[in-house]
Amino acid sequence: MEKEALTRLHHGRVLSMDGPLAVTEDEVWVRGTRICYVGPLPETLPAFDREIDLGGNLLMPGFKNAHAHSAMTFCRSLADDMPLQPWLFDHIFPLEAKLTPERVCAFTRLAILEYLAGGVTAAFDMYYHRPEGAACAAQQGFRYVLCGMSGTPEQVEGEYTELNALHPLVSLIPGFHAEYTTSVEEMRVVSELVHRHRAPFFTHISETEREQAECLARHGMTPTELFDSLGLFDYGGGGYHCCHLSDHDMQIFRDQGLFVVSCPASNAKLASGIAPLRRYADAGIRLALGTDGPSSNNALDMFREMYLAAVLQKLLCHDAAALDAETVLRAATVGSARAMGLRDCDVIAVGKQADLIVIDLDRPSMRPIVNIPQNLVYSGGRDCVKLTMIAGRVLYEDGEFHLPDSPERIYAEAQRELQAMLGR
Amino acid sequence: MEKEALTRLHHGRVLSMDGPLAVTEDEVWVRGTRICYVGPLPETLPAFDREIDLGGNLLMPGFKNAHAHSAMTFCRSLADDMPLQPWLFDHIFPLEAKLTPERVCAFTRLAILEYLAGGVTAAFDMYYHRPEGAACAAQQGFRYVLCGMSGTPEQVEGEYTELNALHPLVSLIPGFHAEYTTSVEEMRVVSELVHRHRAPFFTHISETEREQAECLARHGMTPTELFDSLGLFDYGGGGYHCCHLSDHDMQIFRDQGLFVVSCPASNAKLASGIAPLRRYADAGIRLALGTDGPSSNNALDMFREMYLAAVLQKLLCHDAAALDAETVLRAATVGSARAMGLRDCDVIAVGKQADLIVIDLDRPSMRPIVNIPQNLVYSGGRDCVKLTMIAGRVLYEDGEFHLPDSPERIYAEAQRELQAMLGR
Predict the structure, then answer these.
(1) Which residues of B touch A208 (CB under 8 A)?
(2) Model confidence pLDDT, tens digit, residues B331-380
(3) CB contact under 8 A, A371 and B300
(4) Where in chain A is the domain with CATH 3.20.20.140?
(5) Angle at B109 between CA B107 and CA B114, to 5 degrees
(6) What local confidence, expressed as pLDDT, does residue A86 receive?
(7) Is residue B397 within a helix (H) or strand (E), and if so which, with residue range?
(8) How is the beta sheet containing A143-147 ordered, strand by strand?
(9) How far apart are CA B153 and CA B148, in angstroms?
(10) Whether the model pTM is above 0.95
(11) Closest among B75, B239, B73, B223 to B147, alpha carbons compared
């Protein structure tokens, strides 16, 4: 067996996110896909295959996007500034009917460029053509956690088994789109799978007031209560959006250890509301952050989500102290990783996957250096991402992508497929 | 007299912001500080001193930051996530007491790096040590419009005359900080100057509910009514923030042609509220956008302001159609320029100042290309800024600054002065 490459990241600052927030000057070494050393410069050094001089910049765990429909890059700027219903029914759905596996791959490749350039090392993706989308992500070297399944008990079992065995970078967590698009019979099929595999479960939950109200009218229960009554949360999981949880919903979330995956940018742009994250955090509910799809955001930018999560909460609570930078930074990294079942991608520590990013502290908005976590949340941005590494492989560095295809080719392909779908 | 250099910008897309929004493939030529040609490729070409191949990227007017305390870069990440009163009185004011002209210059130079890297070509700045701050900005080649004055009638007259004659890149518009920090006697001094020079007037107005209520209690009038009663708006102007204007205030704004300079990021982070920009626009009030100081934002990023202006309005109005991309893009460019009295820096047209930026359309978030203005507002960011030109001079290009001092020196100086102020 070939010896795995040994990479040294040194001469920088390290924000491990492991334990209390602290910036150290540790060395971080990576062997193959995993971190093998974190600590001070030792007396003697091994022979490294690559040494990355961080030049005083910041090494930290990559951001994890805990809710996305990545391939919806094709909808970017296609239908903004309009109410939800015409947006969905007149614009998004008719185009989605024209998606093919090849098109999903083309648009997913575009999304992955954006993830890498923005320091995002994994996405929790719910969309069509899952096997092809996942294979495409893995081929780029990107970490992909899928959510969603449909069909007979045999079909969902097959998809669960197949996608969890597809590639080390790919996994699938049981889920379906939402209460309002799924029959109780279909929900039971997923619940049976959840129980067979003792697996967590995720879905859209209480994104809008209307969703909450209509579910109550239909089932006499909120979406959270309904899913809980079906045993879907017996092995954990959580909900995407969760702008409008009831007090009892919150109790279920806390008692079952569920994650609220908040998508503040999408919720704002679609006027869905502001998820009360301060209340959720105070109630002991675990928080993660996601971008939602580029159709409603329109970026796949976790810096934007962190900023919005913090400041929208201040507006909602009429309190400038509501939800601090540390809470949202943890949600965007550790919280999202754990929601996605990526327990070995959450922090910088020996044995963890090397899903790492380097933040350029020589960008104007990162100066002066007083409190780096607050700089990240309140003045950081995609322009500060200098390097993105997934499973020990550098996929983005100083504006250049290291991928099978060139960005030019990916841009051209996405543009061509979109024009074809639009009939232009 | 030396012949002025002729620069050709070609092979790109042009969003002139002149008239209805349209992207053309025009050539744009600059002679000296001004645009001298906009149009198709002519039969014969003159000899150019420089040719900038835009490579298909977008040329547009630079963003204008219509409200800032630029030198407050020293407060970035120094005191986040706390209520307004302790933030101001325990953290900001004690440090500001230690400011010197040299320190204001050091922190302003840092702000200018951020402006240039973010495509901002001018700032409307209100802060201490105005003559030194303005001279420093001009020395960097940055366009600076100052606001504020204090002292006897002779002193304010002297400052107005001196700063408006200081440098072609510098101007001063009469103003003072706010109603709650200014005596009526001091306001009268400024009003007399406004009338002597037929000049517009700007100040902080109705940023918080408390400000509005306390002014009513003190004067029996809102800030807008008070300023109007003193004749301060007789030659136009406007207010910074304006989160809480009354209906009568709005009438005054519309009738006097005043600008609302909205600062959505700062208003959100300090929990001041959301300015009802949809209502203002519907009432025919002119809109501009600003960042406020990096103490409360914490970035000097007009992309963030545009995004927030649009999506916060959707939240406030419970309507995803509220305030579209075009409205906020106009506010951040043309509206802000006109609020700042920069009538010849607003659009791309012959005779206008060459305050231009190039947006890199080969960044993932700018693809696919379907609607470029919507891309700018909803998925654009500082990472998409490829070039920034002010008065015909390229000050930022492909990540490099062309300034008297290196960024390394500016970062080190700002850090050193801040540490000294903090006694560390």
Answers:
(1) none
(2) 999 999 999 999 999 999 999 999 999 999 999 999 999 999 999 999 99
(3) no
(4) 63-339
(5) 95
(6) 84
(7) strand B393-397
(8) A63-68, A120-125, A143-147, A170-173
(9) 14
(10) yes
(11) B239
> In which element (H, E) is residue B260 found?
strand B259-262
Distance between CA atoms of B126 and B291, rounded to whole angstroms? 12
Domain span(s) for CATH 2.30.40.10 in chain B: 6-61+345-401
pLDDT, position A2: 64
Q: What is the pLDDT of residue B88?
A: 81
For residue B319, CA distances in Å to A23, A220, B245 come to 42, 28, 21
Give the pLDDT score at B82.
87
Predicted pLDDT of residue A85 = 78
Q: Longest Cα pair distance anywhere in chain B, in angstroms?
A: 69
Best mutation site among B95, B120, B298 for testing chain A: the one with the most A CBs within 10 Å?
A: B298
- Write the residue in A74, A367, A408 that is nearest to B368 by C-beta: A74
Tens-place pLDDT, residues B49-104: 999 999 999 999 999 999 999 999 999 999 899 887 788 888 899 999 999 999 99
Low-confidence ranges of chain A (pLDDT < 50): none
Chain B's closest residue to A71, CA to CA, is B368
Cβ count within 10 A of residue A297: 30
Q: What is the biggest distance separating any 2 CA atoms in chain A, rounded to whole angstroms?
A: 69
pLDDT score of B83:
80
The CB-side HSE value for B41 (13 A sphere, CA atoms) comes to 6
Q: Indicate yes or no: CB of B77 within 8 angstroms of CB of A321.
A: no
Q: To the nearest whole number, what is the mean pLDDT of chain B? A: 97
- Pairing mode, strands A143-147 and A170-173: parallel
The 3-class secondary structure across chain A, one letter per residue, is CCCCCEEEEECCEEECCCCCCCEECCEEEEECCEEEEEECCCCCCCCCCEEEECCCCEEEECEEEEEECHHHHHHCCCCCCCCHHHHHHHHHHHHHCCCCHHHHHHHHHHHHHHHHHCCEEEEEECCCCHHHHHHHHHHHCCEEEEECCCCCHHHHHHHHHHHHCCCCCEEEECEEEEHHHCCHHHHHHHHHHHHHHCCCEEEEECCCHHHHHHHHHHHCCCHHHHHHHCCCCCCCEEEEECCCCCHHHHHHHHHHCCEEEECHHHHHHCCCCCCCHHHHHHCCCEEEECCCCCCCCCCCCHHHHHHHHHHHHHHHHCCCCCCCHHHHHHHHHHHHHHHCCCCCCCCCCCCCECCEEEECCCCHHHCCCCCHHHHHHHCCCHHHEEEEEECCEEEEECCEECCCCCHHHHHHHHHHHHHHHHCC
Q: What is the CATH number of domain A6-61+348-401?
A: 2.30.40.10
Q: What is the mean pLDDT of chain A?
A: 97
CATH of domain A63-339: 3.20.20.140
Q: Give the relative orientation of helices A130-140 and A153-164 as an angle to the nearest 10 degrees.
A: 0
User: B6-61+345-401 — its CATH code?
Assistant: 2.30.40.10
Domain with CATH 2.30.40.10 in chain A: 6-61+348-401
Q: Which of B83, B265, B375 sits opposite A320 (nearest CB)?
A: B83
Packed helices A302-317 and B302-317: angle between N→C axes, nearest 10 degrees? 50
Min Cα–Cα distance to chain A from B29, Å:
28
Secondary structure tally for chain B: helices H, strands E? 16, 20
pLDDT < 50: residue spans in chain B: none
Which pLDDT belongs to residue B2? 64
**In chain B, % of residues over pLDDT 70:** 100
CA dihedral A203, A208, A212, A214 (to 10 degrees): -110
Set of chain A residues whose Cβ sits within 8 Å of the Cβ of B302: none
pLDDT tens profile B318-339? 999 999 999 999 999 999 999 9
